[in-house]
Each structure stands twice: as C-alpha cells, then as structure tokens.
Amino acid sequence: MSGKIVILTGAGISAESGLGTFRDVDGLWTQYDLNEVATPEGFERNPKLVLEFYNARRANCLGAAPNAAHEALARLQEGWAGEVVIVTQNVDDLHERGGARDVIHMHGQLDRALCADCGHRWDAPKEMFVEDACPKCSAPATRPDIVWFGEIPYAMDGIMDHLAGCETFVAIGTSGEVYPAAGFVHQARAVGARTVEINLEPSSVVSAFEETWFGPATEKVPEWVGRLLG
Ligand code: APR
Ligand code: ZN
C-alpha cells in the first residue's frame, strides 16, 4: 500500500500537550460561551473579550510542546511512499513544531492576524488589542485569523480534491460534532477509501469508520504509524 493518506485532526491530538479540548468534561466550551468568543457577532459585540480569549489561548500554545502523536504524523509524512496530507481543525502550531509539513489549517491559526476591513493577513503578535491598527490600511479592525462559527472554513476546495484522491482517510482526536470536517469520512467512503478513527472514545461519526483505535493519541497514533511504516 502506498496510496495517498488524508489525515484530519482535532483538539484531541493536542490534549496531551496540555491545550485542552472543546467538548470534553473540562473543555473550553464548558468554560466560555462560544457565542461570545467564537462568532463574528460576539466579536462585534465585545472585541476586547474575544481578543483576550485568543491571547490566553496563544499564551497556552506558546507554553505547550508537540507530543508523540504530532511527531508520529511527521514521521509518516517522511517515511510513507505516497502523499500524506494533514488537515487540522486545530489553530495551534503543534503539528508544525512536531515536524509536519504543509499542514492545512481549515479553521485558521492562532499565530496569524487578519484585518476585518481590508482582508490583510500577517503574523499575529503575542497579544492583540482592540486599538491595534492594521499594518496595511491602518483600520482599528484587527482580529485573530480564526474561522468562527458561521464562517466558511479555509481551503475547502483543496481538501475536497485531496479526499477525492485518497486511499486512506484517518480522523484523529475529533468528536465529529462540527461540519464540514465531520462529513469528510463520507467523502472518503464515496471514493472507496479505507477509513480509520483514532480517538480516546468513539466519536459521533464512529459508525462511518471501518477501523477504530481507541486510546490516548500519544499511544495509538505512534502505534498506528509504526504498523503502516512496518
Ligand atoms: N487522545 C485522543 N483523543 C482525545 C484525547 C486524547 N488524549 N483527549 C480527548 N480526545 C478526543 C475526545 O474524545 C473528543 O472526541 O478528542 C475529541 C475532542 O473533541 P472536541 O473537543 O469537540 O474538539 P474538535 O473535534 O477538534 O472540535 C472541532 O469545534 O469548536 C470548534 O473550531 C472548533 O476546531 C474545533 C471544532
Ligand atoms: Zn486592513
């Protein structure tokens, strides 16, 4: 086997790096109201609260390290004869810091900033403030380059092309609660791809997967990669 592998990751792959998840017992959406901090309307209402929320997550991420699961996926990209495409819902940079290449961040990235007025993007400072001006048009309309609920995820055309040509689709550390990502497994099945779910516990879409590996990502992902690379 050396066909194209498409991997979708979620917050569960970064959980053991200490970044927490969204929908687990102590997840972010149990501490914050996502409508206040992860929607364009929330940003409109209270940009200071939203920028502080992402400043805290950016600091969290800076203090975290990639784990054995991130590093195993980088090894797979290195050692696999075919293409290995990593699509992540995560906005942290732990895949890159774990050695992965060309990671597709469909929900944006904590370390990027966006001007809500002119669409300019640049590397985000450690902390963002409401009065920050856009380096290009000087409008005080800067926001994290994160895809909020109700907005269109990035790179969807490219992701659909990758799924249309994949031989194996693997979902790691995602609850299968948020679309379009939760529907990728159906696109993969439609082209006859093998489907694998690696998760701490069954996701909401587990029934769509042929093969499941349950347990912590830092154990199961290196085991699964080791099996593939022989
Ligand atoms: N190893 C493997 N899986 C884990 C681990 C772990 N150590 N810890 C938790 N998980 C699993 C949980 O069982 C759960 O299925 O990770 C998943 C995390 O699910 P969510 O918190 O819903 O995170 P995610 O699926 O990435 O959320 C998708 O929702 O809020 C939006 O934009 C946000 O990208 C996010 C999207
Ligand atoms: Zn601008």
Describe the protein's architecture and organization.
Helices cover 36% and strands 19% of the residues. It has 230 residues and is α/β, with parallel strands linked by helices. It folds into two domains: 1-19 and 66-107 and 151-230, TPP-binding domain (Rossmann fold), CATH 3.40.50; 31-63 and 110-146, 2-Layer Sandwich (SIR2/SIRT2 'Small Domain'). The strands form two sheets. The chain has a six-stranded parallel sheet with strand order 3-2-1-7-8-9, sandwiched between helices. A three-stranded antiparallel sheet has the order 5-4-6, with helices on one face. α7 links the parallel β2 (84-88) and β3 (104-105). α6 (68-79) packs parallel to α10. The longest helix is centred in the first third of the chain and has 16 residues, at 47-62. The chain starts with a strand and ends with a helix. The mean pLDDT is 97. Bound molecules: adenosine-5-diphosphoribose and zinc ion (ZN). Zinc ion (ZN) binds at residues 115, 117-118, 120, 134, 136-137, 139.
Write the layout of secondary structure elements.
Layout: E1 5-9, H1 12-19, H2 28-31, H3 34-37, H4 40-45, H5 47-62, H6 68-79, E2 84-88, H7 94-97, E3 104-105, E4 108-115, E5 121-123, E6 142-146, H8 156-164, E7 168-172, H9 184-190, E8 194-199, E9 211-214, H10 217-229
Parallel strand pairs: 1-2, 1-7, 2-3, 7-8, 8-9
Antiparallel strand pairs: 4-5, 4-6
The protein binds adenosine-5-diphosphoribose and zinc ion.
Write a brief structural summary.
The chain has 10 helices and 9 strands. The protein is an alpha/beta fold.
